[in-house]
Every structure is written in C-alpha cells, then in structure tokens.
C-alpha cells in the first residue's frame, strides 16, 4: 500500500475523532500575507497564532488537516527534547542552551492551554509521562534526567523498580522516572480542533489541495497547487515534517522519515484496565527503538514502536507489537486487536528541530523526532511571531542552512537495517 493511498480508516484515532472541519479545496487564485504548507500541528498552530495577530494567512493541506503524522501518532504529550537540559547547555552555550530548555519545557503546557482556551472537543489527560529503564545503564540515565528537570522546577521523581512496576503494571523495566507535566490527547481530534480554532480566528484552511511548486517573483512568493490554482504570499511557511517533498531543492533529504507502527485492542474489561497504568500515566521507554504505550479515553490499550521502513503490506507488519503486549501485559494478551496503523516521523541528523530560511520569506520548520504534539504546537507560536515581525529572536532555534544528510538513500537502508537489528536484539520482549 503506497504512502499516498494509505488511508486514515484503519486508525483508532480516525474511528473516534471529533468531526472533521469543513476545509474545501482551493478553487481560485488568492493573495494573502502568509501561505502555510501543511495542515498538521505546526501549520495549524502557526495559522491560529497568525490569525490572532490579525495577519492574513492560508493553510494548504494535501489531504485533510491531521492526515499525516499529526493524526497518526500515539497522542503522548511529552515536554522536553531528546537532549537533557545539561546537554542543551553544553551544545548551545549557557544563554542559548537555557533558552532552548525553557522552550522545550513549555511544550506540554502549550497543548493543554490551547485545549482549555479554545474549549476543544479533545479527550485528554494530564497525569504524567513515565520513562522506563530497560537495561541497567539506563537506571542512572533516568536518575539524571529526573534530577536535571527537578532542578529547573519540574515536578519529576525517580522510581525504583517496585514503584515502576506499580505505576506501569508490568515487570519488564528495572527503574524509571516520571515527569508529571506530561499527558495525552486524542491526536486527530486535537488536530481537527486546532484547525477549527484557527478558522474561528480568521485563518483559511484548504484540504485536498496539494502543493505542486514554489517560486519567487520579485518580493512575493507564488505557491502553485496541483489543481493549477495559485496563492501569492509575502511569506511562505513550510510545515510538512515526515511527509516533506522537495518543495525546496533537496529539502526532503534533510530528514529520515521512518514509520511508527501502532496497534490498539478493544476496550479492556474493568479488571484488566485497572492493572495497566493504573494511575493514568502514559509511557515510553529508553530503548534505541523505543516502545510507547498508554490507555485511550475508552480503555483500549495502545502499543507503538518501529516497524518496517516501507509502508505496511499486511497484518504481519504489526505482529511484533502484539507479541510485546502479550509479554508486558499478560492479562491483556487475549484482548482482540481492533486497530493497526502507522505514520511517519521526521528525524534530523542531530535529533533536533531544524529551522531554515533558504531565501527571504521562505521559512522551513522540519524535524519533530516523535514529540510533535507539544513541540510543533509550540513551534507554531514561534513561527507565527517570526512571520509577523521578522524578528529572529522570536525563534527558539537558530536558523541554519539546508544541509542534506550524506548518502541519504543509504541512510534509509541503514535505518531499515537498524530496525531489523534492534528488533532481533529485543526478541526476548518482542
């Protein structure tokens, strides 16, 4: 099944989401202050915050808002980035590192504040996120992460094995830590409600409007759609992440976009439900190819992780996740799997978000690293501020040149091989 044809229909989120907003295809040429390409969290948040500033903007989405990774992820809202606070300071220096850490710390707050402010119809919980340590060396990592964030005022705690077992409902981890800022949302509902909020604020959103090309004419940008319609804009913001094409030369080769696979059971019985994540947290672990799991708002158990780099062929592509459920949560091993789906994650070479402006007025945001719910919602605020003011100080990350990943095609093959290797190494669990 090709990426273009892969529908939302197999997804739990599609089956339980809030109704989709009306986003008709663009049917005429228009001129606007800012054109946004991509109707995921970043693009919709950018549109919402631009509209609230009174800036005219339009979103062009190839499918429907939330069709890509924003409607296919695990719905976990995790503050922070892949780097710990001390690593950010070491990498970027004291001033910039602390500023970037503060930005990363705010990402979960953004999501829950937007849900409350706009009274979004989004099932959500905020009872924290737990990261389980899967090998002895990760026990110290968990202690370090918890301590570093606690020193900055976050409500975190290190868990020994007994407490980790109690909170997760499984005995496969050696220890862990909890970040009580984290939580979960119904991700497609959140994307659709973010779209609705942007529309109410004055943004225009068009679905089923693929972008065919970009060109600069004088001080303006021309965004040509596949249907032949054109948007003329003073600025363009690209927010396509794991579904990026070469709207700008070589842009798609700046990231690797592996598939993240998920399964969901039928709603569990009350007794089984109470034995898994009994305190309502969500979790992902410290594996190279991490596992992530949670209960949804109707008591289904979700399990996610890496699978084949290609698009799925049949149900066997999710079989490793079904084995994980049986090993980690024996009480749920007989629960039928009702949903199987996947979505692409944009991973940069340094595992950090990248911001580019290769030509004046063309702003590129790319790289979500699996934390897109909070990260991209918050990035949208910053992108809107920059598009409105032109002040780069409003951006949380430095603007860098577009640099491709060397031997990009080989890297895709490498990622596929690494996925296979770690799945074999973790065969005791999966």
UniProtKB/TrEMBL annotation:
It holds the Pfam family DAO. It comes from the Bacteria. Residues 33-385 form the FAD dependent oxidoreductase domain. GO terms for cellular component: cytoplasm. One of its GO terms (molecular function) is oxidoreductase activity. InterPro entries: FAD-dep_OxRdtase (IPR006076), FAD/NAD-bd_sf (IPR036188). The keyword Lipid metabolism does not apply. Keywords: Oxidoreductase. This is FAD-dependent oxidoreductase.
């Amino acid at each position: 099944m090709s990426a273009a044809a892969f529908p939302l229909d197999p997804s739990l989120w599609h089956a339980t989401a809030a109704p989709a907003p009306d986003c008709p295809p663009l049917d005429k040429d228009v001129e606007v202050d800012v054109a946004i390409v991509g109707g995921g969290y970043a693009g919709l948040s950018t549109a919402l915050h631009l509209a609230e500033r009174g800036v005219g903007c339009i979103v062009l989405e190839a499918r429907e808002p939330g069709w890509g990774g924003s409607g296919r992820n695990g719905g976990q809202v995790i503050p922070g980035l892949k780097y710990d606070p001390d690593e950010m300071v070491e990498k970027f220096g004291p001033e910039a590192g602390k500023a970037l850490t503060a930005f990363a710390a705010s990402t979960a707050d953004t999501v829950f504040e937007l849900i409350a402010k706009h009274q979004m119809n989004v099932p959500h919980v905020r009872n924290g996120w737990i990261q389980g340590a899967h090998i002895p060396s990760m026990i110290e990592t968990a202690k370090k992460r918890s301590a570093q964030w606690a020193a900055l005022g976050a409500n975190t705690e290190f868990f020994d094995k007994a407490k980790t077992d109690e909170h997760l409902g499984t005995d496969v981890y050696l220890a862990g830590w909890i970040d009580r800022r984290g939580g979960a949302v119904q991700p497609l509902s959140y994307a659709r409600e973010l779209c609705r909020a942007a529309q109410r604020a004055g943004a225009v959103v068009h679905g089923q409007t693929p972008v065919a090309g970009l060109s600069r004419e004088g001080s303006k940008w021309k965004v040509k759609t596949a249907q032949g319609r054109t948007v003329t804009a003073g600025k363009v913001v690209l927010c396509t992440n794991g579904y990026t094409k070469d709207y700008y030369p070589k842009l798609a080769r700046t990231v690797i976009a592996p598939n993240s696979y998920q399964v969901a059971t039928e709603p569990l019985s009350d007794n089984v439900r109470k034995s898994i994540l009994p305190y309502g947290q969500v979790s992902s672990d410290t594996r190279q190819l991490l596992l992530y799991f949670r209960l949804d708002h109707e008591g289904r158990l979700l399990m996610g992780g890496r699978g084949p780099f290609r698009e799925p062929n049949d149900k066997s592509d999710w079989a490793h996740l079904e084995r994980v459920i049986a090993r980690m949560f024996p009480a749920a091993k007989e629960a039928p799997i009702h949903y199987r789906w996947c979505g692409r994650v944009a991973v940069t070479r340094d595992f950090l978000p990248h911001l580019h402006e290769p030509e004046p007025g063309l702003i590129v945001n790319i790289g979500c690293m699996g934390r897109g719910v909070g990260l991209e919602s918050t990035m949208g605020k910053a992108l809107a501020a920059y598009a409105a003011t032109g002040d780069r100080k409003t951006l949380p990350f430095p603007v860098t040149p577009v640099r491709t990943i060397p031997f990009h095609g080989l890297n895709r093959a490498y990622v596929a091989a690494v996925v296979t290797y770690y799945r074999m190494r973790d065969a005791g669990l999966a």
